[in-house]
Backbone:
């Protein structure tokens, strides 16, 4: 097996971004600042498929990303096929967690792709800051699983899921770079190679991909399991002094168990990671929809997902510092009580029923807020867009309202405007949930909004606010 892996990896195998790309082949200082109808603004980076630029579509007057296959690579049939394959793969999938392709064009000898400009941070940068709290890691993994599920339904396996190809912002998580995607069941070579080298990123390859075998959608599940392991623990599960050693470890050895590498995560979440990273594809989840269900359930075992870590995140450390001492457990309690559970709250001020509205398009945020409200015996309704939130407000009065500013259909500002114009005798307590730090409120908004809550949510702060309201 070692000999086979060495043959596939080559004497000095590298990730695609380092293969056959001398700087002069990627960057041409004489490149025109206009490609067709697109005006190039600034170069965002280079990768396995050439340059990526921020550009403006001069016809539609919108910004986009332009991915350019350099002329010397466009003349290589294999690289050109990879480029066209990526365009076809992305174009066949429409999903909010996958970057959208607008067009593929050629200007002279330059082949390029116009696609959605995805603003945000690569997941790599978040991981570099230390292990992520489980809630954040599960949220990212769930979004990626959603995008992959849609790609797999269209018969597309990504085959290069890794932190560099996942962009995270306050609004979305996007999967990028379908450059080595494979049509499942198609006739294309299962592992597109360059000079006898397996194309992909060694640390995140599935065993079947590392051995050059035929792959299907379950290879992405293994890679996502590796990414989830790294998010939770802050380290890669499979490493080596050389690419060949890394591939051998993936195929032949088990990593440090995730329950030890990320002490404090729930058993359910640890089981999700282990099952994703099973060596045999048929021992993994049947599909990404099943994986998504398992991820969501893994949060419900312990809403706070507290972890004892040598490198705790700020949110976990603050929650631990501010949390009051827990009371003795009741013999009939089925859930741990992290702090005193108050008696059911009486109707709030005036005649308004003590009920909450949670309006946020992020299911993880809704779950966190809902869990805290349940702990204080406060009933609540959910809305995943502003239009539904307004409908609920028309039919029922709420004493507490949590509203995300950036929601589809009607945004949070629209919800706040409705509340402002329809306040009864007793005004509700309105909490704005936002990922924009130092969010500014107008004087009119300040008259309606009780407080700002920033994502990722500080659980202790939310609990204090709810406790005061209860």
Residues:
């Amino acid at each position: 097996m070692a000999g086979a892996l060495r043959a596939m990896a080559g004497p000095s195998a590298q990730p695609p971004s380092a293969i056959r790309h001398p700087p002069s082949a990627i960057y041409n200082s004489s490149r025109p600042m206009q490609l067709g109808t697109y005006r190039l603004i600034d170069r965002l980076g280079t990768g396995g498929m050439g340059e990526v630029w921020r550009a403006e579509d001069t016809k539609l007057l919108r910004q986009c990303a332009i991915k350019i296959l350099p002329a010397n690579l466009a003349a290589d049939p294999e690289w050109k096929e990879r480029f066209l394959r990526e365009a076809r793969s992305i174009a066949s999938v429409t999903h909010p967690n996958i970057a959208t392709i607008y067009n593929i064009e050629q200007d002279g000898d330059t082949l390029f792709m116009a696609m959605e400009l995805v603003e945000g941070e690569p997941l790599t940068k978040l991981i570099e800051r230390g292990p992520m709290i489980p809630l954040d890691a599960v949220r990212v993994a769930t979004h990626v699983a959603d995008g992959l599920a849609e790609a797999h339904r269209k018969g597309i396996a990504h085959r290069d899921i890794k932190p560099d190809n996942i962009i995270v912002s306050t609004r979305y998580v996007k999967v990028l770079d379908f450059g080595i995607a494979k049509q499942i069941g198609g006739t294309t070579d299962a592992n597109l190679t360059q000079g006898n080298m397996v194309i992909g990123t060694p640390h995140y390859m599935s065993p079947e991909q590392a051995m050059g075998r035929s792959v299907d959608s379950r290879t992405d599940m293994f890679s996502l399991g590796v990414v989830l392991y790294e998010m939770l623990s802050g380290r890669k599960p499979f490493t080596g002094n050389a690419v060949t050693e890394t591939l051998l470890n993936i195929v032949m050895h088990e990593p440090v168990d995730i329950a030890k590498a990320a002490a404090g995560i729930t058993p359910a979440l640890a089981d999700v990671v282990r099952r994703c990273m099973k060596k045999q594809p048929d021992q993994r989840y049947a599909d990404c929809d099943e994986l998504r269900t398992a991820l969501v359930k893994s949060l419900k075992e312990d809403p706070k997902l507290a972890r004892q870590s040598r490198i705790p995140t700020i949110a976990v450390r603050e929650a631990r510092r501010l949390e009051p001492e827990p009371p003795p457990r009741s013999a009939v309690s089925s859930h741990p009580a992290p702090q005193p559970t108050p008696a059911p709250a009486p109707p709030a001020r005036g005649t308004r029923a003590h009920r909450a509205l949670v309006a946020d398009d992020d299911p993880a945020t809704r779950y966190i807020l809902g869990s805290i409200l349940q702990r204080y015996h406060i009933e609540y309704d959910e809305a995943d867009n502003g239009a539904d939130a307004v409908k609920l407000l028309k039919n029922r009065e709420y004493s507490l309202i949590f509203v995300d500013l950036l929601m589809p259909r009607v945004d949070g500002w629209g919800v706040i405007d409705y509340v402002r114009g329809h306040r009864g005798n007793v005004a509700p307590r309105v909490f704005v949930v936002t990922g924009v730090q130092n969010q500014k409120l107008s004087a009119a908004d300040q008259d309606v909004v009780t407080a700002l809550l920033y994502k990722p949510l500080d659980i202790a702060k939310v609990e204090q606010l709810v406790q005061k309201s209860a």
Q: What stands out?
A: Residues 1-30, 186-197, 301-352 have pLDDT under 50 and may be disordered.
